[in-house]
């Protein structure tokens, strides 16, 4: 018995250290994000974390973050989508035509716009999944085609202004339904926002607790209690810090509420649904997935439909934010979304990546953008830094993989 | 006729502790056709790789004398400079380029860096005439069949003023007419004084064309015989002469009624739709039975299995798959799995596992629906399933969240087996289940296979190792050139008998 366990333990330790390095690779992104936030907080003399600026970062990057959620799934599946910038422009134009020119009620118009985005995704997904053309080519064609369709839809001019509801979805804030409460030296803050923040934290803690209980019920190992409590406390502190700052400014941006819901929903989908698992298995080993009975074509198709629908949502929000649908909307958004996914830990070969990682990747770029403009850096330098960060992130990923 | 053009003396080659060649010697005389025979894994291809410099001088022990001079090849270029040309089973041609471009690839007929097309095409035409290929030199290689591509390879070798031509399984992928033409060509080249070494499984061809036969087994030279008057049985005796030892766990078969029958199954090659890879094969499996499928490289074993399992190989498939007396639809992998079929691929890294994903997620991959409620996976249930298989199958990893890419070959194979056991199949097709696995782990895999049969499942084992089939199976089918050429029970099965069936060609 002893002779049997000894070598087993010996072989487990390199595997264990490898697992550690994989964890390091995945958590490296959050550490990097924290460091970048600290760096720019110092460089801007604290302006980065001012209530209004946090709100700006969220609102300014919301559409790229929404695109990044769709893009990470595409990349996990082993594909790429270069057309999302043009899709944002086209769906924004569709939304403008529906609301401004046809005068449809805004909820119907938004729904139809999302449907248009899904149809765009379906058209591309068909060629990729069922016809077997590489996604790079199909979506490169889509990038040109949908930009052209945008221009002919708009007649080469902007259409606006949008109804207030759509504008506030992009730009607006939750109302101060319960008034303000005093927070001592921090001044007044919106009660609804604070309660929402507390509800989030409580929900997170509860779900973690239930997960822990279930795992214990199945006789699995769990984090020791102090680690468990520390994790929840850490999340609570970060969430409440952001919420308090926002509550001191103008309550929660609607788009933040939307983003939070999307991030949560898509994370669950990616990790715990059969569909999400199939995306990972296709990207991880296409042949093995095929031989395991995964309906590879259907899954690929729906990943692109989803990407299109999310691009439609981003299109509505971007147009609403500018209060106008323009022919040049969404230029190079695809590159920002792809960069966000790769900075957030996606692997070029597919099969690896997390929704939260992509969001973090997008926020890293958002903070760099915002922080550098606060300190008055010229835009070419911002571009330079973003390019180098992308290269560094992927180089780090390749390097850790080679060591593993 | 008696001059020794090539002498390989006491060649020993090791790979990470495994001895692939053990003091192998080979002597080839000028102007002869020398055949090398042996089972899969006997060391034939390794020996040729040593000779051609793929395994450079210094990575092996022993001496090579070519035309009386010692050789120390560092790579293929070195051996080609001396006139040794090897034509591999997988042809090395650029499909989009023309015949002429391929013939002079890396050796272009050029003047000051610019290709001289007139000279290129003219010389190409002369080479094509020499090998008897009536095609234009400007034809893209992709437009030619495999048989003609083989001739292009030989023409390419002739363009390099070949002194020793080595062909690895030259006729394995060819139909009868093309094989015939190729053998005639080799015969013709011999009368022009070209020396050839051919590696072949088709003993009928060997006895017909070769002057001398060298038999390898388990990385050793067994014997070198003149082909004059040599019988196929005599060669087979040399190829298999090996004893069974008790490397197999004991088992008492409990065989029930028939569960699966594959009837008149015919599959065509996707690359050459006129060539039958599986030809009118019929076989049946019973509950609790372990059935072997024997065949040499290119016999169509994997092709048969994959074409049945969701038509993942082949075109123009015809035939019936009958399960429990009713014909079933296995046209998609999902349908095959739902009908209780499972196929464990011979290449677990390429077709079996998601190496970047952990053990747990690999185990659940083929039957995720069983763990899901309305599309949502119960991860805790998934974890306990994976844990259960880890314990019952002895998968050596500390936790099931270890990535499968970090496990040893034997443990990876157990993960693949666990994945398919979780689908609860009635019929398992195991393709080379012990390839690349060390002896101890093999025993464990055999025990698992026995357990599967004891649970009332039918198991079809495809293996290149005859002792494995004899030790494991209740019944063995032999496949040769896509046809079922024999069926022997455990009692009647001997390696010699199987090898006879496996080498039985359609023409001979």
* Helicity of chain B, as a percent range: 25-40%
Radius of gyration based on Cα positions of chain A: 22 Å
Largest sheet of chain B: 6 strands, mixed
On the 0 to 100 scale, the average pLDDT of chain A is 88
Biggest interface between chains: A-B, 39 and 45 residues
Question: Which bin fits the share of residues in helices of chain A?
Answer: over 70%
Give me the secondary-structure category of chain A: mainly alpha
Strand content of chain B: 25-35%
* Count of DSSP H/I helices of chain B: 17
Radius of gyration of chain B: 25 Å
Could you describe the 3D structure shown?
- Chain A has helices at residues 2-43, 51-76, 84-101, 106-130, 135-154, 164-171, 191-217, 225-249, 254-272, 274-284, 286-291, 296-322, 333-343, 355-374, 379-403, and strands spanning 180-182, 188-190.
- Chain A is mostly helical and 404 residues long.
- In chain A, helix 2 (51-76) crosses helix 13 (333-343) and helix 4 packs antiparallel against helix 12 (296-322).
- The two termini of chain A are 31 Å apart.
- In chain B, 32% of the residues lie in helices and 27% in strands.
- Chain B is built from 17 helices and 24 strands.
- The two termini of chain B are 28 Å apart.
- The model of chain B has no long low-confidence stretch (mean pLDDT 88).
